[in-house]
Amino acid sequence: GLISASLSRSARNQRWGMYGVPVSSLNDPFNTTGLPLEREAVAATFDSDNPSWDLFPGESPMRLDLKAEDGVQWLRTSFQGPDQSAYRFPLCLKFEARDSVVVCAWVNDLFIGRYLYDFGPQNNFYIMEGVVKSDAENSLVLAVMTLKDTPLHITLGPWIVDGTSGNLSPSGKPFVLQKAL
Fold first, then answer.
1. N or C: less crowded end of the chain, CB within 10 Å?
2. Contact between 126 and 94 (Cβ < 8 Å)
3. What gap in Å lies between CA 95 and CA 42, rounded to an integer?
4. Left, alpha or beta for 130 (phi > 0: left; psi -120 to 50: alpha)?
5. Are 101 and 143 a contacting pair, CB within 8 Å?
């Protein structure tokens, strides 16, 4: 949050406003980003006239051309959960960008992560077992913002790991929790 602020002597008639979500009044303060009206945006009804993404193959990312002048954009899509009757496996939501991009992501109304291009190496987000409905429609909501016009690539697919180390690896195999019972 805001710790302190100062203005030069030449600044006059400045008006300040504080915006965000007061986390002290939330039932689940860890399921919020602090964006104004985020609960309403995340819970908004999905427009079924918009095309859904094809969940697999995860190798072909979706590209969004972001514009700085657009501010915060709320994007929503639906996807079909994979059939996990033979195997149970987690999914990976991956973001790739070249410049100052911030993405907050929700799967089925659960906040799963924040991608900050300038502040860290994390661009793969683990979607926990039980969050995605198997062989059913699921929602993906993104709050996206950029300071520079830039493309954002988004991939939703299996969690791919190296068979020996267990580390993420683009040349690995899908991580399987266990065979379904």
1. C
2. no
3. 19
4. left
5. no
**What is the structure's pLDDT at 101?**
92
Question: Where in the chain does DSSP place strands (E)?
Answer: 62-66, 73-80, 87-88, 91-97, 101-107, 110-116, 124-127, 137-146, 150-158, 160-161, 173-174, 178-179
Number of Cβ within a 10 Å radius of residue 20: 13
In sequence order, the 6+-apart residues with CB closer than 8 A to the CB of 129 are 88, 90, 177
Query: Is 33 a domain residue?
Result: no
Number of domains in the chain: 1
Residues shown for the chain: 181
Q: At which residue do the structure tokens 């899509």 appear? A: 77
Q: How many CB atoms lie within 10 A of CB 54?
A: 12
Q: Which domain holds residue 145?
A: 47-179
Is residue 137 one of the residues assigned to a domain? yes
CATH number assigned to the domain comprising residue 127? 2.60.120
Express each pLDDT in 36-89 by its tens digit. 677 777 776 655 454 444 333 334 578 888 999 988 888 888 888 877 776 777
Phi-psi region of 135 (alpha: psi -120 to 50; beta: other; left: phi over 0): left
Return the residue matching tokens 């990976």. Answer: 92
